[in-house]
Amino acid sequence: MGKVPKKHSVADKVRKVKTSAEIKNNPFEVKINRKKFDVLGRKSKHDVGLPGVSRSKAINKRKETLLKEYRQKNKSSKFIDRRFGEYDSKMAPEEKILQRFAMERQRAIEKKDMYNLNEEEELTHYGQSLSEMEKFTDMVNSDDESEEKGRLSAELTASHFGGGGGLLRKKSAGEHPDDDGGPKAKSRQELIEELIHKSKQEKRERQVQKEEAQELTEKLDHDWKSIQTLMVRKKPKAQRDETPVEKPKLEEYDKMVRELGFEMKAQPSEKMKTPEELAREDREKLQKLEADRLRRMMGDEEPEVAPSRSHVSADDLHDGFILDKDDKKTLAYQDGKWNLDEEPVENGAKGEEEEEEEEKVGGGSNEEVEEEEEEEVGGGSNEEAEEEVDDASSEEEEEKDDEEEEEEEEEGEKEEDGHSDLESERESEEEEEDEEVKPEKSKEERKAQQEAAKAELPYTFTVPESANDLEKLLCGHTPDNQRLIMARTQKCNHPSLAVGNKLKLQKLVGLLLDYLGELACRSPPELTTIDKLIPEVYSLCQMFPQAACKSMQTILGDAAHSMEEVLEVKGNAAFPTLDVLIYLKVAALLFPTSDFRHPVTTPALLYIGQALTKCPVRSLEDVTSGLVLCCLAVEYVSFSKRFLPELINFLSGTLHLAVRDKTSAGYSVVPPFRSAGKHSDLLVLSDPESWKSWSRKTLPLSATQQLAFKNDVHADHYRLTCVYTCMELLSKCCVLYKDLVCFTHIFQPITALLSQHLSFTLLTEPLKELRTAILEVLGAAPLARSRLVFNKKKPVPLKLFTPKIVQVLDYGKKRGQTREQKEEHRLRHKYKKEFKGALREIRKDTRFLASEKLDDIMRRDAERKRKVKELFGSLATQEGEWKALKRRKRK
Amino acid sequence: MAPSHKRNVKLGKLSKPSVKIAKIDLNSTVDNILESKKHANDVFDVFEFLQSEREKDVITAVEACSNLFSTLLERKELFKGKLPAEDDALSGECSAEDKYHIFIRHRYNNCVEMLLEHLSHELHAIQEASLCCLMKFAAAEGQHPLEDLDWSEHYSFPRELMQAIVDRLLSRTMDKSLLISRFHEFLEKDDIRYYVMSSIRENVGKVMDKSKGEVMPVYQHNVFTLISNISMPKEESELSNFMVKQEAKHEHWKAAKLIEHKRTFERMWLGFLKYKLPGNMYKKVLVILHDAILPHMSKPTLMIDFLTAAYDVGGAISLLALNGLFVLMHEHNLDYPDFYKKLYNLLEPSIFHVKYRARFFHLANLFLSSSHLPVYLVAAFAKRLARLALTAPPTALLIVLPFIYNLIRRHPSSRVLIHKPSAEDEPLEDPYLMDEDDPAQCHALESSLWEIKTLQRHYHPDVAKTATLINTPLSQKEDDISEVLEITTFELMERNLKQTLTKSIPLEFEAATQLLSVGKDVMGQHFCLE
Hints:
The structure holds two protein chains of two kinds.
Chain A: H1 10-16, H2 21-25, E1 31-32, E2 48-49, H3 51-64, H4 66-71, H5 93-109, E3 124-125, E4 128-129, H6 130-134, H7 154-161, H8 166-180, H9 188-231, H10 237-246, H11 252-262, H12 275-298, E5 333-334, E6 337-338, H13 342-361, H14 366-387, H15 394-411, H16 424-436, H17 443-455, H18 467-474, H19 479-492, H20 501-521, H21 527-543, H22 545-570, H23 578-590, H24 601-614, H25 620-637, H26 645-657, E7 699-700, H27 712-737, H28 743-746, H29 748-757, H30 765-780, H31 819-890
Antiparallel strand pairs in A: 1-2, 3-4, 5-6
Helix pairs in contact in A: 1-3, 12-17, 16-17, 19-21, 20-21, 20-22, 20-23, 21-22, 22-23, 22-24, 23-25, 24-25, 24-26, 25-26, 25-27, 26-27, 26-29, 27-30
Chain B: H1 4-13, H2 19-35, H3 43-50, H4 55-74, H5 86-91, H6 96-118, H7 124-143, H8 159-169, H9 177-183, H10 190-211, H11 217-228, H12 258-273, H13 279-293, H14 304-313, H15 315-332, H16 339-346, H17 357-367, H18 375-389, H19 394-410, H20 450-455, H21 461-467, H22 482-485, H23 489-498, H24 522-526, E1 527-528
Region (Disordered) (chain A): 126-189, 231-458
Function (chain A): Involved in nucleolar processing of pre-18S ribosomal RNA. Has a role in the nuclear export of 40S pre-ribosomal subunit to the cytoplasm.
Main location (chain A): nucleus
């Protein structure tokens, strides 16, 4: 019996089944197990046994299971009734039928897809779909209830008080007669059938009535219309008054129920798009735009699309804005009026305005135009955004704007709310032409369009594979376009769109970073381009942190390595070039600066510190570079407020450069500065009076590379700006480091410099103010501090001598074992027991089977014997008869 | 034997023979000269080439000369002894043989002079060729001395020639370091080294006396390059490599004795250091002093004057002098008064930035490793270092912090600097006097190391971590600072760069829109994109 699912043996099962009292009390059946010792308090389960009963039970069980299996042994086919509850003897047959019916219904309405929110089962009311009813198409239907005036219909009551499905209710109704023990003449099934039949019939009748009523109403309406004109003069009120009288007033509660029933359920809005889908959409959009552009470049005519102005519902979310090409205005009120009529006028006016402005600046340089355009674009799109119910992000807007341009070109509509910078001029020309020869496109126009398309940016790009490719791709474009190119490249080659894209874009991160450095190295450095490309770098970095981190690390590592090499040879190095400064800044933009340890920013900060200590200041350019580094350093530590000694050293050294008289001490300067020497007067004003004409300015970044001054005053102004920047940074540092224990000691040289040495240099108002502010902060810092002590440690508890109490749960068993050992013992014991039990069972099984087989054989033999006997008997009678016949014949 | 000028004229007419031809010519001429005395006058042809403008001509000529005269020297065809004037000899009545010898000797002298001139030639190749040639002559002369060797104390070594070469090498106007480095190859020979050293001493004495206390940077640089690279033998047995083999009286020869070598070496250095040196020369000398000079001197204590003077100069020079002083104190029982006070005063902000930082801390560690130092001194050092650490770069901080910890560990009574629980709780001003020169008076023991507390906020994670060690009692084991002594910023960076590339990299969550934003970042407030 290897099939027994539980570990309990058959004997156990048998024991559990209650045996009848007669048998129990029959002394011939009972076997008493003799106990050797009586143990108090121990309950023995097996002191009395019923061996006969249990044996017979075991045999019966075997007959039910093992024997059946044995009989079925070599047979492959089998009939299984899978109907619900078929083998459950406890269930009443009616119940079975009911359950089956319920299950059937349930299966029918069961949802196909668990997560599919869209395909909801259709809810019905009287066999009509609720969704259709929501539309209130058939007004007559709603009059149903009025037919039975005043009385609540059964259905209504049911819907109010039933609480559950109709089935339940019906069942309970049907059950009553059963309980009463009344005549069971009608079975349940019949009852239900009857019910269904009845309701169907009722319904049919009602339908017929309704149709008749409707016909009548229509007829009445028709007649009414014909006589309406005649009745206008008469009191129409009388008629109207009648209706409320006829209809019973709807009660508040009913209204509520209705409302709740018909209340719009939360409809699933358009599915949230996964990033992959978005990316695909973006790419498709760009591809489409590109195809358009190419087509126009080839000079093909656009299929004419009538600019039909169809209004959209105010609730339209513009979800499918990609698909509808014309920019439809939503129907909405504006200042209490339709926006329908006014808009074209408004747009026209705006367009003209823009045109005028464009013409004005038309003669100017390209860049100016761009700037102007940008401003206007901003303004225009804002207005638009107000008008439209459109919450698209700025980027989307940009894209959309691009789309709109194309439309404009064909339609000649004065609806400009944005366009790429390059075409603006051309477009305006085009528009002028359009005004004159609108109906058909002239040749010139088409040509112009071609040119415009050529000048326009392509919409799809392949990812550049090398630095050269990237440069080729970007060179010759304006900063804004370069940004656009990079953005489009990213979109077209989103990693989810193709397999190799990820690698390509990862490579692009490094290339782009290199390109930034290269831009910074040009003379003059193209910082605006860098500025524009920053968001792209950022988004790429967000996509591929590993790659960005790696390339940034290589850049920083290379810079540090080259500096280290120079340092080893010469002992000091030149200040880092502009590209390195830019990289440091970019690193701060891309990675968090406040981390305790970060694979990029920590080395970057180290590099800054190194540069501030090892690079001697030999010129004003060096001063500027140093100040840039200081700014970066302040930025890096502004969140974490970490202490950067090099920063304070450099700032105090810079102030020292402005001191006229270097002899007086009171502070010490730290390398790379020297207390006196060749370059230690860099920031001393050549003309002490030049401060009078100075005003605050920001320093240009290019000044780190080269500086040229028209005259001494100019140079002096530059010096003053440097000093000012330095002091500003110092005041920031004061705030940052205010909480440090050694604040005063750290700032001691600065206190000395500001209070004693620079008092007469800092004459201008802003400088004076800064100086007093810094000195105030320094003066306010507390000098006293409490002594250092070690952190308090948790006291180590003393050793105690109270005995340790261990709870012993199993007396009389082996002690001193660990829990695992005990468990092992227990399991081993159990295994042994079970094994023995199983062995015994198997033996019994085989014995049983053998006896059955023997039985079979015996039965078969007996049968055979019987048959043989029979045959012999018949033969004997035959023979006897034959002999008797013979004898008779003979006779 | 035709008159020489005629020959010269003839040669002058020969217009620019190609180099190859010149070489063949020269070789054949040399062969001719060597073959028979008839062609002796062809020597002038060679000299003509020697003085030509073209580099290759000169070099071939130098080779030819070296060939010619070394063969002649070997054949002993040069006049020995005191040389009579050429005209006298030619007109005088001696044998034709003698006359020939005298003539050749004169030509030899001319040649040597020309080669010496060439040592100052602007082309290095020529300088080098000439030097090699001269050294070949010197070797040949050593084997076949041109002087009469009658007296016992005269050893056959061409001292005059050597002196002349050294004089030329130690130029007052030209940087000869390249040639000198070539010359060092010859200094492998022990006797050459010995004689060169004494020649240098003579030369230095002569030249510097003339300059009357002025520094002569180029000259002194030359001298330094020459003498700093002299590698002295360590043991007597190493003295076996001689250029001139002395047949007899070997054991009395000075050049064969180590003690004599040492003496000459010592005299040479003292002679050099006696005069005022340019600033960077001081540093260079001090850098090599302890391992290249002091061990090879017979009486190293003679250096004490120089070292004390250097120690008093201050700054980096003092730091470097420490090393020499240490050797003297350690191995030669030098007693230096107020040594620790001076050491204390050496601690300035610049020690963290100078090149010799590692060496200084290594030595300071040695000096302060004594357990017999008074606590006030140790505390003063610890406090001063901590104060200076406020201006130090991270690489220096990684040295200084363990250094201070080690001090505190060695002298447990100085633990009050980081742990003073018994004192009243009210805060107090730092009683330490930074400007006090005397470590005994600076009240360091009454202070606490708040500076290290400050450094717990240092930007570099390693430094900040090290600084937090003072929050708990220090471990017993001393930190080994030798491994951080030579660390550079780049190495520190690389540690961070190599780390954690596998983990995810944290990113800035605030989207960057532009390079400099005026509102937020500090850089945007002060700089613009121009």
